[in-house]
Amino acid sequence: EYKAKVVGTDAGTDVALLKINADDLQPVDIGDSQDLKVGQWVVAVGQPFGFDHTVTAGIVSAKKRQIGREQYVPYIQTDVAINPGNSGGPLVDLDGRVVGINSQIWTRSGGYMGISFAIPIEVAMHVAEQLKKHGKVRRGYLGVTYQDVDYDLAQSFGMDEVYGAIIPEVSEGSPAERGGLKAGDIVLEINGHRLESAADLPFMIGLTEPGERIRVKILRDGKEKNLTIKVGERPDQDDATSSSGRLSNRLGLSVAPMPEEMKGTYDEEGVVVTRVEKGPALRAGIQRGDIIVSINREKVPTVKRFREVVKKLPAGKRVPVLLVRPGLGRRFVVIEMPKK
């Protein structure tokens, strides 16, 4: 075991960069998750339930999954058995190369149910480089809402194939507006890379360095057109911190503003849970990725308002919290506030 210094953390991807003082360490071989094929075998190494050096195996079930609020992580979905203690461990291909970091599972029972997710290694390495260089993660930003192009939309726009991201709204004064993007445009490619689904848009933009110019191919009025857009920096990055990611309130959780794209998806105003630790929120069942809409019947559309409401919650009382859980919809939970 080694004592480690936290160089930085990024709640948006759940990745941290640690530094230790040690000699003669054997580095792992880094692979590329983009080379993975659906159906390919992979293995996970971890410490489930405290059992050291446990290896489990499975196949890649899907790629570029978007779950919860993590719009900037194109998750690798596998059926590898992942349990408490596996998170943070490597996902390895059969050539021994690390292709991902095991992150979380999808479950209704609280345990493994055959659906596991890993952060692609190139995303983790990109985050690590930014934490090393800047102490935080700087993400690209366009300022648009987006949705998938389904078969009916593709037909109505005269498209022969179903792909891309349609833009319902462009924020005034945003990088997208300055670059000539308009509501109703369909983004087909970015820097020559085709968007197979709308989820590819935030993945690609989030990994783009703010200030960089990108080539965007769009479909407008039945004709393809090329734009050059200077990417901005995502505002209000409360989800990227340069130290240990302190918890900011009495509930034992941290929150961040809802990205504009997410507001368009859920038609709600609230704050997104980025971190939960031992405390009232965890006991109430609140999870990372939940959208908190109101607390004690008071709306919390911003981080500032959230902090104001939490600060005045009565000690020793039970308070209702209205939240939206991606995939499950609206629900109330009850938080029991500590007596002191």
Give the CATH architecture of the largest domain: Beta Barrel
**According to CATH, what is the class of the largest domain?**
Mainly Beta
**What share of the residues does DSSP label as strand, in percent?**
35-45%
Measure the end-to-end span. Answer: 37 Å
Largest sheet: 6 strands, antiparallel, barrel
Per CATH, the superfamily of the largest domain is: Trypsin-like serine proteases
Q: How much helical structure, as a percent, in the residues?
A: 10-25%
The total strand number stands at: 24
Low-pLDDT stretches are 236-248
Name the structural class: alpha+beta
Radius of gyration: 21 Å
Query: Taking all residues together, what is the mean pLDDT?
Result: 86
Can you describe what's shown?
The chain is built from seven helices and 24 strands. Strands 4-5-6-9-8-7 form a six-stranded antiparallel barrel. Strands 11, 12, 13, 14, 15 and 16 form a six-stranded antiparallel sheet that branches. Strands 19, 20, 21, 22, 23 and 24 form a six-stranded antiparallel sheet that branches. Helix content is 15%, strand content 38%. A hairpin with a 2-residue loop joins strand 13 and strand 14 (193-194). The chain has helices at 121-134, 151-156, 175-178, 200-206, 260-266, 280-283, 303-311; strands at 4-10, 15-20, 29-30, 41-46, 54-65, 75-78, 90-93, 97-105, 116-120, 140-141, 144-148, 165-170, 186-190, 193-194, 213-220, 223-230, 232-233, 240-241, 253-257, 271-276, 291-295, 298-299, 318-325, 329-336.
